[in-house]
Amino acid sequence: MLVNERTASASEILTGALQDHDRAVVVGIPSYGKGLVQSVISLADETGMALTTAFYYTPSGRSIQRPLRNSALTETFAAKVTQLPTYKTDKGRTVTGGGGIQPDIIVYPEVPTRLETVLDASGSFTAYATQYLSQHSPLPANFQVTPDVLDDFKVYLAARTIQPSVGEWSSDRKWITSRLTEEIVTQALGVSKGDEIQMQRDVQVQAALKAMQDGFLLASTVR
User: 3-state secondary structure string, 18-42?
Assistant: First the structure.
């Protein structure tokens, strides 16, 4: 199961249950921590009040809800988070509580470089892919960005006053090749095909695949 800071509510409940029952290894970064139930009480003048009436817990007893701000529960809950309370899964694995689902394997996404940020924000990949496909359609199913295409892309960028240094281009060349391939394939063959390319460079997805190949869940289970 892959989780991040946007994994919330029902997806956290499911992930926590699978983790506690030793049916999944969780990879990524701690989830959002939305594990409460609110009841809406109707008031006058077509208004209402949402009142928190319950919390969600995983089967091992971990609260999914992150600490509440400005409430009487904050200090108690914060103290528990600081102590990093631990729980046991069905087969004896140790998992950490404290609000949100804590992954078995924590993997943070890669921080984009300055050049990567500029290229994505400028829309250069999308614009170049559109231009490329206007001259190279239909795109073969086994399409790959060649050094010649990459050089042409660099010239395209220079014409639009994006001129990375030799060092920047060299260090980001692999990422640029993958990202450009993704955009061209997405426009020509559909989003799902482009997503396949994106997943090949996603460090969290790759970590999850490695965990499966290494038999992480089996190896870490107490028999």
Answer: HHHCCCCCCEECCCCCCCEEEEEEE
Residues 58 and 103 grouped into a single domain = yes
Same domain, 178 and 86: no
What is the DSSP secondary-structure string of 96-140?
E-SSSPPPSEE-PPPPPPHHHHHHHHHTHHHHHHHHHHHHS-SPP
Q: What is the Cα 192 distance to its own chain's centre?
A: 17
Rounded Cα distance, 153 and 173, in Å: 11
Tens-digit pLDDT profile for residues 127-171: 999 999 999 999 998 899 999 999 999 999 999 999 999 999 999
Instruction: Answer yes or no: do 36 and 95 share one domain.
Output: yes
Work out whether strand 36-43 and strand 94-96 pair parallel, antiparallel, or are unpaired.
unpaired
Please check whether residue 212 lies inside any domain of the structure.
no
Q: How far apart are CA 223 and CA 219, in angstroms?
A: 10
Backbone phi, psi, residue 63, to 5° = -75, 130
Residue 208 lies in a domain: no
Does one domain contain both 95 and 154? Answer: no
The crossing angle, in degrees rounded to 10, of helices 191-201 and 166-189 is: 150
Q: What are the tens digits of pLDDT across the range 181-197?
A: 999 999 999 999 999 99
Instruction: Please identify which residue in the block is written with the tokens 């139930």.
Output: 37
The amino acid that residue 95 corresponds to is V
pLDDT tens-digit readout, 30-66:
999 999 999 999 999 999 999 999 999 999 999 999 9
